[in-house]
Design brief:
With 885 residues, the chain is an alpha+beta fold. It is 11% helix and 27% strand. The strands form eleven sheets. Strands 1, 2, 3, 35, 38 and 40 form a six-stranded antiparallel β-sheet that branches. Strands 33, 34, 36, 37 and 39 form a five-stranded antiparallel β-sheet that branches.
Length: 885
């Protein structure tokens, strides 16, 4: 017989249930928030609200830093100059004609803060009492916000961007304004009692505004714009609300630019962001073999040539040439795939670029704006093995082979211009290219002015404290509503226990709620002490859980307090406390004589609790075992994978998130009864589309996708020789031999339309062509990349009957009568398509997606978009009941 108490319950403190603090936030020496209880930041330290770098303790980027939409870092230097990081030279370069000290436009006085919204750069020019707005594309000064726009005298000291809005703090009047690029300056908040007190404005992920109040330097606070929320004295309670900044300054004003933000292309925020405890000496080195995109990191064997509009990179080992725009950031053309050649050198000048094939001396020409690569110098027998090609200022192309005294000359059309002595053109061939930046070994480290800093080692750290060395947290008394309740045990979950840290838990049981205010230190009973192990836990390990008995006596209320200690550079974090009550000991199942005296009772309760804790845990797992079979409740990780693969034989995509996997698991009971049928295939594809589009499956189905058309439904042809199908309005289109495009002399033999098909039965082509086939129509906007299409095809292949074949149709927004005009199948009404002439092919796009920007397909030449827009009469509804005629 199992012994399981039935009346026990518990209080959950933290872990999503909130922390019941007894004292005010300003009196707490340990911080409690959604993440847990931890030590408070050191006053004035790097993690305090008044951190020296101006990041408000790591809530935002350091003061005077901002990232644009392409994750390029901008700096406002102490000399009021503005610099932008250049990934090619890996240096911070000055913005021309922007910055410097002065009163004139484009110059600043006492400027400390900048912000970027879209393509516009805002600078809080506090000394000149204005905010200057620049266009990052051309560095034009587009707007100057002064006190006139604000309705009087003001002092803008800080700016912060959120989305397309920029928040401007007017310290003089205690106001916050909102400005949209090209829009109006609107008053967002006004507090006359805070005039002269607010010094910073920040905005969190959800758009909530906070103001830093430094009127009392010893007690700075971050005040929410919503006055219903209390002020915050420690930034630790707000870390979850803000995006972690990828750049932090050390005590000497140096910072590390992570590798993911230093790449020439595909720059992105590092995941995860660097922790405040990470020393600058541990800055991750720049990965020269990082993910290649657009302009890749130069391989070992490359040649580079700069034209007027394009940058050409010849990759010798890959036997290809790539052309880039936008300063070498965006891939425009790629030549070489499928060509039998060995490109040896490339040269460019003006609109033209020439590529030398080292195998036979063929010279190819490319003109900017065109897609083709044209051979202009054909190979000649017994030609020297040319390895280098150059172009002079007159556009003459020279080819040279090692050891040859002559260089062969050609014009831009490939016509021979004779030979020249090599010494006359040696300057072209021997001009040295700019040296390639040296490989980095200690990361990209800069000072506050954007100047590069040499290698940094651990000895450079001055040891500035990040946290207080000790702190105490006290909770409100917990009410059991039981007279003389004997509290049972506490489960403590610690998500972080750095080496050298301690957590000590004390309890005090009392009968009146206010008794704890008069409690002496001797009244608190030490319940447990957690000592951090010397070896840190492995990365990604789960939180540590400690289970211990409540040593205090009986009482209706129980007060809990914790003392945390650390080394000032790291902090323990208590994630939650679970206080169980009343004590339902297995001792009650033993003879009463064994608990007749207190000494025996206490010993037996402690001894039996060892087994009771283990058995209670097993009973709890058995009682909650159904969660492992519920798609919405099964824990992410091995259990979710086991439920899908082992129990349901349901393959899951490896790069799906847990939420995406749950979406397919939840749909499995409705899909399995229809496996091999149209409904089953439609439901599975709908789940995949929902995951690709970031939507719910019900929303995808409500939109009518996917549309699956079986082949036999397209076989309604009209046979004049068959009486049952020879009547109009019963059959479909007239059948002809063109359905298979088989060559039949005297029947179907028109040149340019027939195909050589020698298999099958011509008499039954009309049936075989549509048998066991279907087409799947999905919006092209949901299948963006080749990887997305491969994923979708895997789903269709796994679910379709083995003998069938299919065609995946990615539908673009279009309507063309006779081509794409089946309502509710392949017709999507959208805006007039915009076309960029000369647009190159995107190699990462879905292969089945049709080419865009073609005249007669999705491009119409007209004076304006209004001239080509299709207009429907008011009240018209396009659908089955409203055919278009």
């Amino acid at each position: 017989m199992r012994l399981q108490p039935q009346s026990a319950t518990y209080w959950l403190i933290g872990g999503g249930g909130g922390w019941l603090k007894r004292t005010a936030a300003s009196e707490q020496t340990a911080v409690s928030d959604a993440g847990g209880v931890r030590l408070a930041s050191a006053p004035g330290g790097p993690l305090s609200l008044v951190s020296p770098d101006g990041s408000l303790g790591g809530l935002t980027l350091p003061l005077g830093m901002a990232f644009d939409a392409e994750h390029t870092l901008y700096l406002l230097s102490p000399d009021y100059s503005i610099k932008r990081f250049d990934p090619d030279s890996r240096r911070f370069l000055l913005l021309p004609n922007v910055g410097g000290s002065g009163r004139r436009a484009r110059r600043f006085r006492k400027a400390r803060s900048l912000a970027i919204a879209g393509r516009w750069l805002y600078v809080a020019d506090a000394g000149n009492r204005r905010v200057q707005v620049f266009d990052l594309k051309n560095l034009l000064l587009t707007e100057v916000l002064t006190g006139v726009a604000a309705g009087g005298r003001w002092k803008p000291v800080d700016v912060a961007a959120h989305g397309h809005n920029v928040y401007i703090l007017d310290r003089h009047n205690g106001r916050v304004y909102v400005h949209t690029p090209g829009g109006h300056l609107c008053l967002r908040l006004e507090r006359a009692d805070r005039a002269g007190q607010w010094s910073r404005v920040v905005v969190d992920r959800a758009g909530r505004v906070y103001l830093l109040n430094t009127s009392d330097p010893t007690k700075p606070s971050l005040e929410p714009a919503d006055q219903k929320e209390p002020p915050h004295v420690d930034p630790g309670a707000l870390l979850e609300r803000f995006e972690p900044p990828p750049v932090r300054l050390d005590e000497r004003g140096r910072f590390c630019l992570p590798a993911s933000l230093a790449r020439p292309c595909d720059r992105r925020r590092p995941e995860p962001a660097p922790a405040p405890e990470v020393q600058l000496a541990l800055c991750a080195p720049f990965d020269r073999a990082a993910k290649r995109c657009g302009k890749p990191a130069p391989p070992r064997h490359t040649r580079t040539a700069e034209g007027a509009f394009l940058t050409y990179v010849l990759e010798v080992e890959q036997r290809r040439v790539r052309a880039y725009t936008d300063g070498g950031r965006k891939l425009r053309h790629s030549f070489g795939d499928g060509l039998d050649w060995e490109p040896a050198d490339v040269a460019a000048r003006g609109l033209f670029a020439f590529v030398l094939d080292g195998r036979d001396g063929t010279v190819y020409r490319h003109r900017a704006g065109r897609d083709e690569l044209r051979a202009v110098v054909a190979p000649i027998v017994r030609r020297p093995s040319f390895t280098r090609i150059r172009i002079d200022e007159d556009g003459i192309v020279y080819l040279h082979a090692p050891g040859q005294a002559k260089a062969h000359a050609y014009d831009c059309r490939g016509h021979a211009r004779g030979e020249k002595n090599y010494r006359e053109v040696a300057a072209l061939f021997e001009a040295e290219a700019p040296p390639e930046p040296a490989a980095l070994t200690s990361g990209l480290i800069f000072d506050r002015r954007g100047e590069p800093v040499g290698s940094v080692d651990a000895s450079d750290a001055s040891g500035v404290a990040l946290y207080t060395s000790s702190g105490e947290w006290r909770g409100k008394p917990l009410d059991s509503s039981i007279h003389r309740c004997q509290w049972h045990r506490i489960e403590l979950s610690a998500s972080a226990l750095p080496p050298g840290s301690h957590v000590e838990v004390f309890t005090y049981a009392h009968d009146e709620e206010d008794d704890v205010q008069d409690a002496r230190d001797d009244d608190w009973q030490t319940a447990y002490e957690v000592v951090a192990p010397l070896e840190p836990p492995p990365c990604g390990s789960a939180a540590r859980t400690y289970d211990f008995l409540v040593q205090s006596g009986a009482g209706r209320y129980l007060s809990v307090r914790m003392k945390l200690r650390g080394d000032s550079f790291s902090t323990p974090v208590v994630q939650s406390l679970k206080v169980h009550y009343p004590r339902e000991s297995y001792l009650k199942y033993l003879p009463a004589v064994w608990s007749s005296d207190d000494e025996s009772r206490i010993f037996l309760e402690h001894f039996l609790s060892i087994f009771q804790t283990e058995w209670d845990g097993m009973d709890r797992e058995l009682a909650e075992v159904e969660k492992h079979f519920d798609p919405d409740a099964v824990p992410a990780g091995p259990f979710l994978e086991h439920l899908a693969r082992q129990w349901l034989a349901l393959p899951l995509e490896g790069d799906w998130t847990a939420e995406q996997k749950r979406r397919l698991l939840a749909a499995a009971p409705q899909l399995y009864p229809h496996r091999g049928q149209l409904a089953g295939l439609r439901g599975l594809v709908a789940v995949y589309l929902a995951n690709l589009a970031g939507m719910e499956t019900s929303d995808v189905s409500r939109l009518g996708f996917p549309v699956i058309v079986e082949g036999f439904r397209e076989r309604e042809h009209l046979f004049l020789a068959a009486a049952e199908t020879a009547r109009l309005n019963q059959g479909g289109a007239l059948w002809s031999a063109s359905v298979k495009r088989r060559l039949q002399l005297g029947v179907y033999a028109q040149e340019g339309e027939v195909e050589l098909v020698s298999t099958g039965d011509p008499e039954r082509d009309v049936f075989h062509e549509y048998a066991h086939s279907f087409r799947v129509f999905v919006p092209a906007g949901w299948v963006r990349t080749a990887a997305d299409e491969r994923m979708l095809r895997r789903a269709i292949e796994a679910e379709k009957p083995a003998q069938t074949r299919y065609e995946l149709c990615l539908v673009e927004p279009a309507f063309r009568v006779g081509v794409q005009s089946t309502v509710e199948v392949d017709t999507i009404l959208g805006e007039t398509p915009a076309t960029a002439l000369g647009r190159g092919h995107d190699p990462g796009a879905a292969p089945s997606r049709r080419a865009r920007g073609r005249l007669g397909l999705d491009t119409v030449l007209a004076p304006s978009a209004a001239d080509v827009a299709m207009r429907l009469a008011p009240g018209a509804t396009v659908g089955r009941k409203s055919p278009l005629s």
